[in-house]
Model the fold of this input.
Amino acid sequence: MKQERLLSLDAFRGLTIAAMILVNAPGSWNFVYPQLEHASWNGWTCADWVFPFFLWIMGVAMTFSLASKKAKGTPLAELLPGILRRTALLFLLGIVYNTFPFGLLPGQNLHWATLRIPGVLQRIALCYAFGSIVYLHTGVKGRVAAILACFGVYGIAMYALPVPGVGAGVLEPGRNFAHYLDSILLHGHGWAQTRPWDPEGFVGTVTAIATALAGTLAGDYLRRADHAPLEKTCWMALAGGALLALGTCLAPWMPINKTLWTPTYVIFMTGWALVFFSACHFLVDVKGYRAWARPLIIYGSNAILVYLLSCALTQFADLLHVTTAAGRLSVGDALFQRVFCRLASPLNASVLYAVGNVVVLFFPVWFLYRRQWFLKV
Done:
């Protein structure tokens, strides 16, 4: 029996992508509301919802795309080429994202010796690869065990393995094992602002895989025919609340930290994902209120493309310059100062600028959606 498309998941994906653009493209980084900036270290803000939500959504979607093949007992040898192809394409797109616009514009240089290798799409690619293989080979208990194994590997690395000159169990910036491992393996190929380590580096990717696997557990539950949609909504909301409480209780022993992607961060953000998604599921799939979600569904239909377009828009706004009465400014700064700052205070103008990016990027996605053109990776 063909599984009906889960519109609430499409809407949640669109909401997540729109939120990603909102937090990544303020009018000025000097004027940003605290909740729209990532936590500097321990703790969390609303901006810290975005990346784990996307990985969790990917895990849910994975069950809908692979479940029929798994049920038929399709050998991994037949599925592995497709999984590896998608992994490689996502990873390559991440490299393209890191290097765009390839040193072709004035003021932008491309140095292969310091090219950033990790990144958001690269982490998504690795989570997809490992998550798919684990999903195809295990049931619910096996994936719970895999999540706990990810936590165990992370705990051993961060708490038991010593960092030279520091010791073991230190989670401070620049003094933790994740930083130390990246400084050895990346050789300067991390993010420019955090070199020699990278916020999407090796150790955090292990627990990021657990986030995707948590999504597969929710996906399996959503596909069950023996529970009514309203019952599913209630149980997901309750599970989300329980995980929020668990993450909060464990935080004194292991902080909630996006940059390190700690296990408590996985637990806590999975809780939030369940709470938000249960609300979307209730409104869209249970009550049938779909008109409000249509723009989000359109936005989520080409999520990877929107992400890449947002990069291009931000880069061009920063690298292209115009001459104004205040001097030579980037296009982005000129728009912010000469247009948005005349409409509101700097903080609100910065938010309006980000909202403008969300609106502008909606139109090409809407055009593609109307023609049923989707970037398939």
Notes: The chain has a mean pLDDT of 89. The radius of gyration is 21 Å. The longest strand covers residues 321-324.
